[in-house]
Specification:
Layout lengths: L3 E5 L6 H9 L18 E6 L2 E7 L11 H15 L2 E7 L6 H12 L3 E7 L22 E2 L8 H11 L13 E6 L6 H9 L4 E7 L6 E7 L2 E6 L15 H14 L2 E7 L6 H12 L3 E7 L10 H12 L8 E3 L11 H12 L5 H14 L4 E2 L2 E2 L2 E8 L4 E6 L7 H15 L7 E6 L3
Parallel strand pairs: 1-3, 1-4, 4-5, 5-6, 7-10, 7-11, 11-12, 12-13, 17-18
Antiparallel strand pairs: 2-3, 8-9, 9-10, 14-15, 16-17
Bound molecules: guanosine-5'-triphosphate (2 copies).
Length: 437
């Protein structure tokens, strides 16, 4: 799992400037997905060949009426629970404030790695003020200017040094890792309990070493699964009950480790912006995606209700047409026994490999039916296609001019591939690569 680095500090010290500085433009996003809401809260960074995720906790929403100090404390608490490394940012121009001292107190108690960052230092001509920051008891300060990128490279060196080593997780390809994501109160725990049932053998509760997450391993028809704990399933403190952002972070972390994601929604609420964000992330990360509409027992139905509901969800999630939708009730157990059947099916589709000859035949027929786009007198030619990976299935299209490959044409080819080979429930990736004719 990617390590997590959280930026903490009171307002206006330069957290989001630092966030942008650390994450800006370093990682090329594989493909922008139209319709996926992007967020500045949570982004990947790379330094010295290590990839890690950075969170700007300033973006975490807390209760509307929380006072500033309460808000910062909640944000710091989340960082302490979730992050591997905490960057505590202070404004070097204003010096230490009462809020800074309060956060320091919290951070000093944690066993997590804390790096003290004194920002807005563009001028080192007054060394006397520099010593003041040692008094926080958080070790040697890192003096930087986030706005001008001064000393941020040294800061990144420090961060990378403190990241956990790569040995934390052994991935067993035979186990299906299942993330159950969704907003608070949609029924995630109820569904997990239903899935686990009485008859299922729970192999063990695996206490995660790094993040005290609790995973549940179980067997069904000789298939092993691990359900990854997400927001609220085992809530430790009451402090962030109302922070939806918190559940987003937990969901995203669970998705990182999963093969298949169940996005659970409440039938009464339908799909929300947060749901789109979470499932959009799963899609981008190449995870299997299943939409679970829970509390179906609470809906008054006629023979069109289900169909209309599905139509509405599909319209909201244009990039996710491949995802199965299932309507369930954790209370009446309606269709809940189908969930793992669909999970198995999606897991199989994710690992599906198709033969190169069959693939090329499908692509040739597709290009004959609907010729590739042209631009400035040049027409795109697809010379050869091959599947290079699974989980998610990934295809390389060798073409004469990759720039002419439009998103819409890729989408068309993707649909053709799906028509022939399935790949239900899993994103697939098409990469156009130049090959001289
Ligand atoms: N001089 C100077 N100004 C900076 C530096 N970094 C940030 N600032 C300025 O400080 C102000 C606050 O920066 P932000 O990055 O928005 O601070 P923040 O901590 O994210 O603030 P909140 O969103 O309120 O939590 C902006 O006007 C920035 O331009 C720096 O290195 N030097
Ligand atoms: N009517 C009905 N109620 C349900 C169903 N599933 C869950 N509930 C109720 O919804 C509430 C929330 O269920 P939980 O399983 O705790 O939801 P959760 O998503 O785990 O919630 P958090 O722990 O806050 O993340 C409980 O009161 C459940 O009894 C359902 O299918 N139908």
């Amino acid at each position: 799992m990617k390590p997590l680095v959280a930026i903490v500090g009171r307002p206006n010290v330069g957290k989001s400037t630092l966030f942008n500085r650390l994450t800006g433009g370093r990682i090329a996003i594989v493909e922008d997905t139209p319709g996926v809401t992007r967020d500045r809260l949570y982004r990947d960074a790379e330094w010295e060949n290590r990839i890690f995720t950075v969170i700007d906790t300033g973006g975490i929403e807390t209760g509307k009426n929380d006072k500033m100090i309460e808000r910062i404390k909640i944000q710091a608490q989340i960082a302490i629970e979730e992050a591997d490394v905490i960057l505590f940012v202070i404004d070097g121009r204003t010096g230490i404030t009462v809020e800074d001292q309060e956060i320091s107190l919290m951070l000093r108690k944690t066993k997590k790695n804390v790096i003290l960052v004194v920002n807005k230092i563009e001028d080192y001509s007054d060394p006397t003020t520099m010593y003041e920051f040692y008094s926080l008891g958080l070790g040697e300060p890192n003096y930087i200017s986030a706005a001008h990128g001064m000393n941020t490279g040294d800061l990144l060196d420090n961060v990378v040094e403190k990241l956990p080593k790569n040995d934390e997780e052994i991935i067993d390809p035979d186990i299906i890792m299942l993330a159950v994501a969704g907003r608070p109160n949609v029924g995630k725990s109820s569904l997990v309990n239903t899935i686990l049932g009485k008859e299922r053998v729970i192999v063990s509760d695996v206490a995660g070493t790094t993040r005290d997450a609790i995973d549940t391993k179980f067997m069904r028809n000789s298939q092993e699964y691990v359900i990854i704990d997400t927001a609220g399933m085992r809530r430790r403190g009451k402090i962030y009950d109302n922070t939806e952002r918190y559940s987003v972070i937990r969901s995203l972390r669970a998705i990182d480790r999963s093969d298949v994601v169940l996005l659970v929604m409440d039938a009464k609420d339908g799909i929300t912006e947060q749901d789109k964000k979470v499932i959009g992330y799963a899609h981008e990360q190449g995870k299997g995606c299943i939409l679970v509409i829970n509390k179906w027992d609470l809906i008054e139905k006629d023979d069109k209700t289900l169909h209309n509901f599905e139509k509405k969800v599909r319209k909201e999630l244009l990039f996710l047409q491949y995802a199965p939708i299932i309507f369930v009730s954790a209370v009446t157990k309606q269709r809940t026994d189908k969930i793992l059947e669909i999970v198995d099916y999606v897991a199989e589709q994710q690992s599906n490999r198709v033969s190169t000859s069959a693939l090329n035949q499908v692509i040739t027929e597709a290009t004959q039916l609907n010729p590739p786009p042209s631009d400035k007198g040049k027409r795109l030619k697809i010379l050869y296609t091959t599947q290079v990976g699974i989980k998610p299935p990934t295809f390389i299209l060798f073409v004469n001019e990759p720039e002419i490959m439009h998103f819409s044409y890729k989408r068309y080819l993707e649909n053709k591939i799906r028509d022939s080979f399935g790949f239900e429930g899993t994103p697939i990736r098409l990469v156009a690569r130049k090959k001289s004719e």
